[in-house]
Automatic annotation (TrEMBL), chain A:
SUPFAM superfamilies for this protein: Class II aaRS and biotin synthetases (SSF55681)
Xref: Gene3D superfamilies: Bira Bifunctional Protein, Domain 2
Record keywords, A-Z: Ligase
Protein name, per record: Amino acid--[acyl-carrier-protein] ligase
Lineage, uppermost ranks: Bacteria, Pseudomonadati, Pseudomonadota, Alphaproteobacteria, Hyphomicrobiales
EC number: 6.2.1.n2
Length: 308, 86
């Protein structure tokens, strides 16, 4: 499939989703409203995930889609993904600055130059807010910690591909503990995630993956990540068979977050972390792609998984 | 005479690339075991490029290239040879 054909397929799928009133365009690539039907699929999918993972004793934490700027700076995100980050800026001037702002706006010139960074940054991945929270509690218990997070996330990558939104939700289970504990958790979720998605009747494969690290240095970070098999993705074809879409990811962060926030295991070692992330919009899109736009006409076996 | 290995060791001494003193490690010691992180590897690569006036091609931008002083010496040697031949 050529790049042009891929773009055409993405645009066609986006237009069909809009025509069926599942997504509501907002005039910016990657920014959409969701219909009641679309949200119901996502809500049902989240319940399905909870049926598989809800008895593991995860602590539920729900954060707004933004984090403390200082935590964001500490996280190292800007070292790896400066191009994706979304910082929140506001007007912090006086009356005269306000007057200048209005004049610039009326002239349709760039009025944003005077905006100043607030203490708030958009959440880049659902698990980011929880590490400093855990670190503040002191040493982990002997069996580590398990947290269930769910949040809208922002990434600045405008695209016509409906599967690449700028604001989307991630449901995650995050395991914090020793290397052995978090690796066992990741394997458990590779198996569970594959079982959950297989039962939903979509074609899938699980493969080694890398994050979209920035620049030349990023090439090396990506190669390192692959060499060490730190990231796996569960891929489902949505607008292309050759380039299937990552709908779930299974990530081993080694001791990166443990080191950044000084999270300690019971024996005093630096904690390791791993997470399973569900890209819930992508999963809904995969279901609409493979089973059609009318959820009532989806195969009964699939409906039974979601609407039980 | 300053060898390539000495110059590589200088980079470790000048930048805080490893949590341990490079002098305690042999040329064949595993730098990742000694605490070399992915992001520190990026800094190491950029410092090597500056010091030796070379550019690492994509095929060398991998973990193995930087796993020991010996491995770095081999990669830098190859790039220096290419530069001399060009």
């Amino acid at each position: 499939m050529t790049a042009d054909a891929l773009s055409a397929a993405q645009a066609a799928f986006r237009d069909a989703l809009i025509a069926h009133r599942l997504l509501i365009p907002m005039g910016v690539d990657g920014l959409y409203g969701r219909s009641g039907v679309f949200e119901d699929v996502i809500e049902r999918f989240n319940l399905l995930v909870s049926r598989h993972g809800g008895n593991d004793g995860a602590e539920v934490m729900r954060f707004p889609p933004a984090i403390n700027r200082r935590d964001f700076e500490d996280s190292g995100y800007l070292k790896s993904f400066p191009q994706l980050a979304g910082t929140i800026h506001s007007f912090m001037g006086n009356d005269r600055d306000h007057q200048a702002l209005i004049e610039t706006l009326l002239k349709k010139e760039d009025w944003t130059a005077g905006q100043k960074a607030t203490q708030v940054v958009m959440t880049p991945a659902a698990c980011y807010p929880l590490y400093p929270v855990l670190a503040a509690r002191g040493k982990l218990p002997a069996d580590g910690a398990l947290v269930d997070v769910y949040s809208y996330c922002f990434r600045h990558e405008p695209s016509i591909d409906p599967a690449r939104m700028q604001l989307f939700r991630q449901r995650e289970y995050v395991r914090i503990g020793t290397a052995d504990q978090v690796m066992a958790f990741r394997q458990l979720w590779v198996d569970r995630g594959t079982a959950i998605m297989s039962a939903l009747g979509v074609p899938l494969e699980v493969d080694v993956a890398n994050d979209p690290f920035f620049g030349r240095a990023g090439k090396m970070l990506a190669a390192n990540q692959r060499d060490q098999t730190l990231k796996f993705e569960l891929l489902i074809p949505i607008t292309s068979r050759e380039k299937p879409t990552a709908c779930l990811s299974f990530n081993y962060h080694q001791d990166h977050f443990g080191h950044v926030w000084d999270i300690r295991t019971q024996d005093g070692g630096t904690a390791h972390t791993a997470c399973v992330g569900f890209g819930v919009e992508r999963i809904a899109l995969a279901l609409f792609k493979h089973h059609g736009f009318d959820v009532k006409a989806w195969p009964q076996a699939v409906r039974d998984q979601l609407w039980t | 005479m300053t060898t390539v290995a000495d110059m590589i060791r200088d980079i470790f001494r000048e930048g805080s690339i490893l949590p341990v003193d490079i002098a305690t490690l042999s040329d064949s010691a595993d730098l990742y075991t000694a605490g070399l992180t992915s992001h520190a590897t990026v800094n190491l690569m950029l410092s090597l490029e500056e010091k030796f006036d070379v550019e690492f091609p994509d095929r060398l931008l991998r973990r193995r290239t930087f796993e020991s002083i010996d491995a770095i010496k081999a990669a830098v040697g190859e790039l220096l040879d290419q530069k001399a031949a060009a």
